[in-house]
Amino acid sequence: MPKAAIKRILASVLLLSAIFICLLWVSVNYFFIPRVAIPKLQEYLSANMSGPVKLTIKDISFQPLRGFLLHDIELSGPVALKENHILRAKLVDIDLALLPLLWKQIIVKRF
Q1: Distances, alpha carbon 18 to alpha carbons 12, 25, 30, in Å
Q2: pTM of structure
Q3: What per-residue confidence (pLDDT) applies to 82?
Q4: How far is CA 74 from CA 4, 13, 26, 30, 100, in A?
Q5: 19-78 residue pLDDT tens
Q6: How far apart are CA 66 and CA 64, in angstroms?
Q7: What's the rounded Cα separation, in Å, for the pair 108 and 96?
Q8: What does the alpha-carbon distance between residue 91 and residue 15 come to, in Å, rounded to a whole number?
Q9: Are residues 101 and 90 in contact, defined by beta-carbon separation less than 8 angstroms?
Q10: How wide is the angle at C-alpha 62 spanned by C-alphas 58 and 63, nearest 5°?
């Protein structure tokens, strides 16, 4: 097989891999997190607390090598301690084990 053909195949594979990673990143950040993850988290918190809770996250993003970054989080509810907030944080960095997500398991490696 000529070198030019091998280079074209390798370039095609690299380009397709880059496109796949970009599409995965966009789908996680703009579809899965706001439409699936945050509503499930609010539902879980409301069911396990003594009343309804309000979860506000200004920005959440997924970064493949770092994990999830949550910016400006506020959790308010019926058991508020100070200023009607149970939790308030400027930045939360969550590192998940990615393989167990395929089996709908969440394992937090670092919080």
Answers
A1: 10, 11, 18
A2: 0.57
A3: 60
A4: 56, 43, 25, 20, 28
A5: 998 888 888 778 887 788 778 877 877 777 777 777 888 888 877 777 788 888 888 877
A6: 6
A7: 5
A8: 33
A9: no
A10: 125
Structure tokens at 105: 């398991």
Kindly list the distances between the CA atom of residue 111 and the CA atoms of 15, 16, 27, 94, 108, in Å, as whole numbers in the listed order: 33, 33, 23, 5, 7
Contact, 109 vs 96, CB < 8 A? yes
Dihedral through CA 17, CA 109, CA 79, CA 43, nearest 10? 40
Q: How many CA atoms lie within 13 A of 50 on its CB side?
A: 4
Show Cβ contacts of residue 54 under 8 Å, excluding neighbours closer than 6 positions. 74, 75, 76, 77
Taking only the tens place, the pLDDT of each residue in 3-17 is 888 989 999 999 999
Q: Looking at the chain, how many residues does it have?
A: 111
